[in-house]
Design a protein that fits this description.
Length: 427
């Protein structure tokens, strides 16, 4: 059996469109709940989403369709009850914010490029997608407010219930991976000014070739140093300008479709940009990236810096102090190089091998990786295995709360079936 359908289904609905784009449903009313109608297309949309997400479910298709219909009926019952409650109000601003959040979740789960490609395939923009689901999201917000105000206060889970549940289920709990808490100092291998100038000249040469009419995609596939977009002809997809920082943002904000930028320098190298499309604050952009290539001498210079820091650590200088002053990792530098807890198996080699052998409280010699030279310090370890009660206590409490809340929802919908007329159409 599938789990109870979530109230908020929008993050999955674009996928449903993908699975039904070549299918035509002769739309008809399959059920009425009070003055609300449920269409066959509503059922099929969610049904296809579930089949796409859980292809090996194995449940009888007709039984699954019936379960989807029953859940849609329950949602309509809750919606009608929320509309009659004069204490519940949903503003247009709340609807807009909810849609923005759900589209952001969908984009993160699908990946930006896949999300934008799916929008193009369906002939949609972000705005038209929001317009299509605005009423549905409004309905969901009404339902959620009804649940929060009327049902959630009834849900109480005691510490004893959580403890008993843990004792009953602890043998079936999944094992957690071995974890290590790390600090690090990163010394990047930075190219010399001569190498930067060499990359600048290469980018400028490509720019001149583009001005003379050579194909952008072809040059990107031949020369770009971005492995993620090179084989795509430099295609970065559709990107909101708000997600772009620095000189790239300023350049793209002033470009029109078809225009090609001069080489733009940032920490990654030299970017040549081309705008394919522009829709308000969203641009479809391609790039050719030319990275300055460090030499062996540049690598030796970075190694010398890392070894000097290692000697300072051995002489007693605090790890945090050196990380803040010298680390090239902008995400951890201000926190004294603190990375936090990381699954040991998630660390790339050779960092994993080093972290496995370090004792708690000790640091490593400089370790060469593709990113540069790392000095690791192990602050703590957590062995893998079955989690303790303390580690899963909060998660189990949330699970029990969800189960009790679902029981309250089931109880209320059964009562509402006596209050509002429900008719399932034959066919």
């Amino acid at each position: 059996m599938i789990q109870r359908l979530a109230l908020f289904l929008l993050p999955a609905l674009l996928l449903a469109q993908q699975t039904t784009q070549n299918q035509t449903v002769q739309d008809r009313v399959v059920a009425t709940v009070g003055d609300q109608v449920i269409l066959e297309s509503d059922v099929e949309e969610i049904l296809n989403t579930l089949q796409a997400q859980f292809p090996s479910n194995g449940q009888n298709l007709q039984a699954l369709r019936q379960q989807v219909l029953e859940e849609l009926i329950n949602q309509k019952l809750l919606y009608l009850e929320a509309l009659k409650d004069t204490s519940i109000h949903v503003t247009p601003q709340e609807v807009e914010q909810a849609m923005d959040q759900q589209i952001q979740q969908l984009e993160q789960s699908m990946g930006k490029e896949n999300f934008e490609a799916q929008l193009r395939q369906e002939g949609l923009t972000r705005q038209s997608l929001k317009d299509q689901y605005r009423e549905r999201v409004k309905e969901q917000l009404y339902i959620q407010k009804l649940i929060d105000q009327r049902l959630r206060p009834r849900v109480v889970v005691t510490p004893d219930e959580v403890r008993r549940f843990y004792e009953e289920k602890k043998d079936s709990l999944p094992e957690r991976p071995a974890m290590v808490q790390l600090q690090h100092i990163l010394i990047q291998i930075k190219p010399s000014p001569a190498q930067v100038e060499k990359a600048r000249k290469k980018a400028e040469n490509l720019y001149q070739r583009l001005l003379k009419g050579e194909d952008f995609e072809t040059l990107a596939m031949q020369y770009s140093d971005d492995p993620n977009t090179r084989d795509l002809g430099g295609d970065l997809g559709y990107i909101p300008l708000s997600q772009i920082q620095g000189p790239l943002h300023d350049t793209l904000a002033n470009m029109e479709p078809g225009q090609i930028s001069k080489p733009i320098e940032d920490e990654a190298g030299f970017h040549i940009l081309k705008v394919d499309e522009k829709d308000g604050n969203v641009v479809h952009v391609r790039q050719i990236l030319i990275r300055p290539v460090p030499t062996k001498a540049d690598s030796a210079k970075a190694k010398t810096r890392a070894e000097a820091l290692y000697r300072k650590l051995k002489d007693g200088t605090p790890f945090e102090e050196l990380a803040r002053r010298y680390s090239d990792d902008p995400f951890t530098r201000d926190n004294g190089g603190l990375v936090g807890y990381v699954p040991l198996n998630n660390l790339p080699e050779p960092l994993k091998a080093v972290a496995e052998t370090l004792k708690v409280g000790t640091f490593s010699e400089p370790v060469l990786t593709e990113a540069g030279y790392y000095i690791l310090k192990v602050l703590d370890r957590k062995p893998g295995g079955k989690p303790s009660f303390e580690e899963v206590q909060q998660d189990l409490k949330v699970l029990l709360e969800q189960r009790k809340l679902q029981a309250e929802i089931d109880r209320l919908t059964q009562e509402l079936r006596k209050k509002y007329p429900v008719e399932i159409k034959e066919g």
